[in-house]
């Protein structure tokens, strides 16, 4: 899956690096909150709620998702008018500053109810940032790509998620290993949040050097005005809904680890060592990275929808065995369960950028892709950890969670049947060549 040779120049490589590094930083910031929601925040900020503290702590992970569509609309509107690059810099700054401030919020024992309120407000800002980030990064990579490599190029902003998960779990595991349990809960967990300062600087340096999307520049030179938001839903609302259902199935499954649920369950219910659990998730993130790249690469050969469907079938097959292995309460079983879990997840994530970019014409592409993604995250990942904990508490078994995730996977599989697969379609016919058989947008 090389990015060198074959007419791929330095600017192309710079673009995919900027997309990957930026999303890595964004999701590192996003995930350290989700992981700490299960390991730390219930006791530090929501302890007054007693036995419901953990459920509410997980609910704050989901609250940010409610604001993702707002971020998607705002960034999409501005991105379709002013460009993808400016929005990527703005979303990176918003996410980074919010994360650093989280590391400075005193516990509820110091400032009372103000502590969880401030924490939730900062989480909402993270949600606004995440809603606008993905669409810009995905489109910048895909719109710079040669038509025959859009799947692979589009997979690079996608792997920012497993790399961010790898980095978040790695930093937390290192801090956990270097501190006592009491020190980690008292101040150690704040270190990963404060380290975001360094990542912001790195991300800004990289993204500021990337050229604007050539497809967007062509539209801007032509003087085309962005289509009103209402027209997007009137003309392509069906595709927005199908895209949302497709991602809902992926994100519900993914947020068992990215949302911190598996980590919390393994540590608090199965009494496994926290550092070993975080290391297990890191191993699965590495597999997720490889399978996501493979999914993007295969999408250029098999088509985007076929790779999605293969991933959904793998997800469906693995749901019940996954929880059976986790419940063995050993680290080797947990590692195996998570690594196999990540294969189907990557196949339903790698083709996403290319598929969503080819679903919408240039003048509404940022909004269409970003809103479909954001709505899917609300329907799927937003409250998946909360639903999982409520199901386990109510039924007394984790297999009920497997049933829930299997149901979400079936929804995504059905949605994929109705999505047109148009690899190589001109993203902007005057500027972008495509295969002769590809039909342009009307």
Automatic annotation (TrEMBL):
Bilayer topology annotation: Multi-pass membrane protein
Statement: the UniProt record of this protein carries the keyword Cell division: no
Span of domain Major facilitator superfamily (MFS) profile: 15-424
Subcellular locations according to the entry: Cell membrane
Transferase listed as a keyword: no
Record's keyword terms, sorted: Cell membrane, Membrane, Transmembrane, Transmembrane helix, Transport
Entry-linked Pfam families: MFS_1 (PF07690)
Transmembrane annotation, as ranges: 30-47, 53-74, 86-105, 111-131, 152-175, 187-206, 239-257, 277-298, 331-349, 370-391, 397-419
Protein name as annotated: MFS transporter
Source organism: Pseudonocardia eucalypti
